[in-house]
Amino acid sequence: MVTHMTHWGAFDAVSDGERLTAVRPWPGDPEPTPLIGNVASAQHHPTRIDRPYVRKTWLDHGPGAPGRGGDAYVAVSWDRALDLLSGELRRVYTEFGPEAVYGGSYGWASAGRFHHAQSQLHRFLNCLGGYVRHVNSYSLGTSTVLLPYVVGDLFALLGRFTAKSVIADHTELVVAFGGISPKNAAVNPGGVSRHHNRDWIERARRRGCRFVTVAPLRDDTADIAEAEWIAPRPGTDTALMLALAQVLDADGLTDTAFLNSHTVGYEHFARYLRGTADGVVKDPAWAAAISGVPAERIRTLAHEMAAARTLVTVSWSLQRAQHGEQPTWLGVVLAAMLGQIGLPGGGFGHGYGSSASIGEPTRTLPLPRLPQGANPIDRFIPVARIADMLLAPGTPFRYDGRELRYPDIRLVYWAGGNPFHHHQDLARLRRAFDRPETIVVHDSFWTATARHADIVLPATMTIERDDYGTGDNDAILFPMPALTRPHGQARDDYDILAELSERLGTGKEFTEGRSTGEWLRHLYRQWLSDLGERGRDFPDFDRFWSGSGIDLPVADPPQVVFADFRADPRAHPLPTPSGRIEIFSETIAGYGYPDCPGHPVWLEPDEWLGSAAAHRFPLQLVANQPRTKLHSQLDVGAHSRSVKIRDREPVRLHPSEARARAVADGDIVRLYNDRGSCLAGLVVDDAVAPGIAQLSTGAWYDPDPADPSFCRHGNPNVLTADRPSSTLSQGSTGQLALVQIEAYHGPVPELTVLTPPPIVADHDSV
């Protein structure tokens, strides 16, 4: 058995050299995930890309040729593919410069420190002269921009949020806005060695800690928590949180001393709560009318929070919505009003249950990494604005206090990602993908993004290449020797880019004369050298490579976030403009953005169950993350396909909503709104609140040829809106949308995403 690492966990495998013959959970993982079952079953699926391909119309007519998304592909040799691509890169860089190349290439790619696809691509493009990049993520785009104004850099905090073991030992009440999802806590960028999704909750519960989950789905928190379930209308958490704050303020339950010594701006916020400016007191009765949560329960919950050691945690899902800054900011404000920030088991958290790394003991060492070099140009977009950029080059836009302009992109280069999974309003994205002259994709599978590319290059899976890996804040560095030969003619991204670099005259700069094996050895040795005394007990590379992994040191005792700041805010100020927690931000207020003022407020979303649009579309779609795969990765794997209904992604409805529509378990139904429609298989489940339709993302986009807004497979992003969270963050809002559901009575169409696109032979290059 050989151990390997994925984003969803470590596993042991046996291989015959061609395929994995056995896959078992790594014995050191106390809570392994069944997602590892997707790996072996997907490796040689018919949708694996077996060799280079070029879109036929692009090959016949050159850059800018129409027909993306429905064209046939021509199988070509590696030499011809690389000649075509190097020639096109040379043309675009020569005629238009690096500002015409979008190389953001967003996506999780694969586990592994060296073969991280985006890092490889960015290094390659930097050697050519640079590229237009992206900033932020679809997962955390809103919080990444907001929280530096409020408490400090989010990515510095992600590995420092209070350890789950501390919560288990000290917390008396957990109020989880958005829940603590066990399925999301099974994954982590780079990998998870030991899952700890249940043990800390079980320990806390046995000690008497209470859990309150505030979410539209009961199973957004594990059953073992025995949580009280409060289900506000989706998108109204802000109103509920404001009312909790109003009770704390009105009933004298705030920690005034903490507010005075550790925060700024409370008086501005308090005037808003009290209705001084607008005449509306944000009390429980006001919030009950908006959220549907009874006023008395809001009032008693506020008192319970003030009477206990309380952790206020906000999931990442809440900031993936219009005005997503507001509930995230309010989570900090509520914790500050309680005065428990910096105490063991109290205060604020962001992302417990959103990723396996949150709340793990802080890893105290850096990791080996491939240098990407410097990007000579400073042009970027917020990642979720890609369709805006492609559809409206030259258009000005505002972001994070800056006035910017979208570049005119001629070539898009994507490796290790699938924007037709992450992005919203896929019919609009498809129109946007018609605009560039050339789109290049490296992928292992014929995803929707690959099917919209002009040049498609087959990339290896992690099990087909040598690497080493660990996850964000994970405590083991694993060697990851290749387990099988590559599928077909697939190559590592590094080898592809190395050959391209040679053709373009940047080979020496890109490779530095090293093969993959030489890079792995060099980066490991450089890492040990940089660590100095801290790495003196680690093995040399040969012993590491033949071993079972290195245990990396973590914080001892486990961390309590903001403990130093609480103890002495002058000696340990926060990296905010004031050095304190900013309940009111002068900086944000100074930007004058009407959709994100200087303190948290209730801003009515365009699509929620209290809006006029709900008369036509009376169900709130919750497009959350799937439980049988990571995003859309390995959607063709056995575990992912095991829950599909007649090959459609499952959608969950409350029994009362199913009865109202005369639909039943196992039926194929149609979800629709003004943006698009999709098919799904119905699951009737009382874990979903009335008024909610829950359809996870991750089904590979399979558009009807006559109507790209209709997905036959069940991708909810044909329904979600491509609108920013706010002018401040320009973040993704893919979590919520309004829809209607009806029985689907026609013949269920065949899927095309389970087979390759049409392939034609090119006799000149085969």
UniProtKB/TrEMBL annotation:
Ranges of residues in domain Molybdopterin oxidoreductase: 48-503
Enzyme Commission no: 1.7.2.3
Recorded GO MF terms: electron transfer activity; molybdenum ion binding; molybdopterin cofactor binding; trimethylamine-N-oxide reductase (cytochrome c) activity
Top class in the EC scheme: oxidoreductase
GO CC term (a single one): outer membrane-bounded periplasmic space
Domain Molybdopterin oxidoreductase N-terminal: 4-44
InterPro entries: Asp_de-COase-like_dom_sf, CT_DMSOR/BSOR/TMAOR, Molybdopterin_N, MoPterin_dinucl-bd_dom, Mopterin_OxRdtase, Prok_Mopterin_Oxidored
Family the UniProt entry places it in: Belongs to the prokaryotic molybdopterin-containing oxidoreductase family.
Name of the molecule in the record: Dimethyl sulfoxide/trimethylamine N-oxide reductase
Species in which this protein is naturally found: Nocardia cerradoensis
